[in-house]
Amino acid sequence: MIVSNRQRRILEVLLQRKEATANEIAEEVQISARTVHRDISEMKGLLSDYGLFLATKSGKGIAIQGSDDNLAQFHKVLAHFETVTYAPEERKTLILCRLLEAFEPIKLFSLAYEMRAAIPTISRDLDEIDPQLSKYKLELIRKRGYGVEIKGMEGAKRALIEWLVREYLDESDLFDPGPISSNPWTVSRRLLHMVGKDHFLSIERMLWEQEEKWPRRLTESAYMRLLLKLSIAVARMRSGHWLSSRKPGKQGHGGTADAADLPPPHLQPFIDAFPWEWPAAELEAMQELFVHAMAEAVKQEENLLHRNGAAAADAADRLIQAIGRKLNMPFDQDQSLLEGLVNHLAPAMDRLSRGEAIRNPLLAQIRKDFAVLFAAIRAAVDELPVADLVPDEEIGYLAMHFGASMERLNQLKPVRAIIVCTSGIGSSKLLAARIAKQFPRIELIGNYSWYEASRIPQTQYDLIVSTVDLPIDAGRYVKISPLLTAEETEKLRAFMGSLSIDEAAWGEEGKREDAGGWERMKQMNVYTSAIIQVLEPFAVHQLHAPHGPLSEVVSAMLAPLAADLELEGTTAVAKLLLEREQASSQAIAGTQLALFHTRSDHIRKPILKLYRLEEPLWLGEGGDYEVRRILLMLAPLQLSRPVLEILSEISVLLLQPEFEALLEDGEADAIKLYVSQELEAYIQSKWRGRDLHEHSK
């Protein structure tokens, strides 16, 4: 039996460890997890010849299983297997790399010599490579006496290289600071060279700096795609493979950008880092990459806002209320804060749920400038169910939103000030006139001596402006001269910006409209009605799930709900649910439960249904999640805030083991009772928190 050196190493790891995940094998053998899966698939026939088979369990790993005798026998004969330098897939990949790097045809016998294989073997490999090239509109030229070459556009060749890199390398290979030579596998070394491993980290730093300036952030996968394309483009230019000019009159790669047509600023760092003569075609192509990425970032945020809008709005409201209580700030009066948080949280929640890294180069400065605010936000987030997923980098971004809100609120609120001046009535009047002119927000209560000012209750003023040192804490007053110089003007402005806002000082207009008992009772009635609206039609269904695609399962769930959907609504809602699952699996990790949810104009009223599947459904990119129960949550796009909160709270309940157990085998009435009790407790805590806030004033 013949196996490659790499396949032999994988088999040895599995026999030694008894059981290992693809990632563990990949780390041990120093290849990608994708390559592990590919090689293991090729070795199934080999194992079956010895009465063995591969058992794969999601989350647990891969194991070679069979009788003890067969395992012992296979362990002995493995050492005597004949090995070849390259497995068939490795060899075909190396052939592609060699042809993509070449500037002229390569003789067939030269390829056979380089790959250490017979000429008929290489010919067979080329036959199998040809269809893959056709997908990229590339042509494999094979002529006797001429040799072998790949013909086609340079852009298509770069796209093929990108596919090869994604197929055979892990991100850890690309970001490894070690040299290419440290990788033990020939295919990996060849691909690392073609992707430009030696300049990859430099390009990543430049891209990161550029993306920080964009109004919208890329997802991690989109960021990685752009990074790969940029690095491959630079590597190809370095090796002399240039794009052909797209504009008339600029033939070949010799046409350079006109002096009047300067490159956009975001391309300049790349031009400076690689100071060769950049052809116009290359600049145009790189510009298109950035334009496409920026457009994708905007579209992605819009999609995420549609998918996560309800959850983002709920999280934003919770943070605004909690942080407002902690800092005694009326953040709920700043509509810009709510809108900004929702727009930020929708994509942020998506990135966090996928475990993507959050980058925040300003974190250290934010911690320093907004220490109290940062701590308050961290404490508020720690009270949320998703606290473990939220790193300090994300807290830093939230602090910037709340910090900007504090600035806006400070500009709106009048500041009550008293003047303490010992230089006489004329000096105090001069100072008062200059303050009134420079600071319209300051409401001057009067001019006093220190003896008089010390007896004024602190609740009646926000600020003391004094022309002399006072025997009190320096944080309670600002010292300036009667002339109010330019430097002192900035000093007073900074002092005003540092003032904390007491919500009570905003007067009657700033008080909560629902502070009274009657209003509170009316609001609680609204929330109770929302609970009834959501829970009353709740039902549990047994789903005879077809063995076909997920679309058939979704259609089976929606079929009985046609009366609650608009005309042709079933098809539209099914499409939304499938798109959401494709973007990010709705299965809940660690359970056999999935939450399928969406909002649409095609949905007439809130719908909450539980489906128990007779056969398991496998979700996730690789079918990693076994699902036996689906909670379907549908709602119209136009939805009252109480109903939105109720649906959000129900989704939070899915994290509770008691609720999960009820969904497994509980009756519909028992589930409704449990949910209603939890929601009642939520409403009581919501209003109790407001009461405590009112009484603390």
Automatic annotation (TrEMBL):
Protein name per the record: Transcription antiterminator BglG
Residue intervals of the HTH deoR-type domain: 3-62
Keywords: DNA-binding, Repeat, Transcription, Transcription regulation, Transferase
CDD domains: PTS_IIB_bgl_like
Matches recorded under Pfam families: HTH_11 (PF08279), PRD (PF00874), PTS_EIIA_2 (PF00359)
Residue ranges annotated for the PRD domain, each copy included: 307-412
Biological classification of the source: Bacteria, Bacillati, Bacillota, Bacilli, Bacillales
GO biological process terms held by the UniProt record: phosphoenolpyruvate-dependent sugar phosphotransferase system
GO MF, any single term: DNA binding
Gene that this sequence comes from: mtlR
InterPro entries: BglG_antiterminators, DeoR_HTH, HTH_11, PRD, PRD_sf, PTrfase/Anion_transptr, PTS_EIIA_type-2_dom, PTS_EIIB-like_sf
Residue intervals of the PTS EIIB type-2 domain: 415-504
Domain PTS EIIA type-2 positions: 533-682
Gene3D superfamilies: 3.40.50.2300, Mannitol-specific EII, Chain A (3.40.930.10), PRD domain (1.10.1790.10), Winged helix-like DNA-binding domain superfamily/Winged helix DNA-binding domain (1.10.10.10)
